[in-house]
Amino acid sequence: MHELDEKKRKTLIQACDQVNRSFGSIFSTLLPGAQAKLKPPDGRTVLDGLEVRVGFNHTWKESLGELSGGQRSLVALSLVLAMLLFKPAPLYILDEVDAALDLSHTQNIGIMLREHFRHSQ
What we know:
- With about 120 residues, the protein is mainly alpha-helical.
- The chain has one domain (about 1-115): Rossmann fold (3-Layer(aba) Sandwich), CATH 3.40.50.300.
- The protein contains three helices and three strands.
- The protein has a three-stranded antiparallel beta sheet with strand order 1-2-3.
- Helix 1 packs across helix 2.
- The longest helix has 29 residues, at about 1-30.
- About 15% of the residues are buried.
C-alpha cells in the first residue's frame, strides 16, 4: 500500500509541475508581461491543494479579486487549456471565450492556440 501511495504522490506532483509550466506559458502569451503560477498554500504541499497566483511585472496580486473581468477570464482559460495540454484531445470547442476581452487579447488567444495546440483542431 505504501508503494501505491508513493507512486500516486509522485504522479500528482509531476502532473502539477507540467500543468503549472503550461499555465504560466499560456497566460504570459495571452497577457504579455504577466505571470501566473499554481502553488500550494503557505506551509502546505501540492497534496493539500493549489492556489492560483497572478503577477504583473513581477508584482504578485494578493487575490484574484484584484483582477479585471477580462484578466480573470484569461486566468480561467489559461488553466483549462494547461490541463488540456496535459491530457490532450484532438478537438476543442471554445464558445465565446473572448466575450469579456478586447481585440488585442482576442488576437493573443489565436497566437497562443497556434503555438501550443498545433496537433488539435
